[in-house]
Amino acid sequence: MNARTLVKDEIYERLRERINSGAFPPGTFLPSENGLIEHFKVSRTPVRAR
Fold first, then answer.
1. In the predicted model, what is the mean pLDDT of residues 29-38?
2. Which residues contact 19 (CB under 8 A, 6 or more apart)?
3. What residue segments make up the domains of the chain, in order of their start?
């Protein structure tokens, strides 16, 4: 992650990349808010920011 990249933007881009790569096939659920918090080791604020 670039020093100037905001955490919320990094989370957004990583999820977008995974969706576009097929990591989440159509019909599957994205990780929950709590799942994203645990995965990215962040507080709730950047997960909800986008």
1. 96
2. 30
3. 7-48
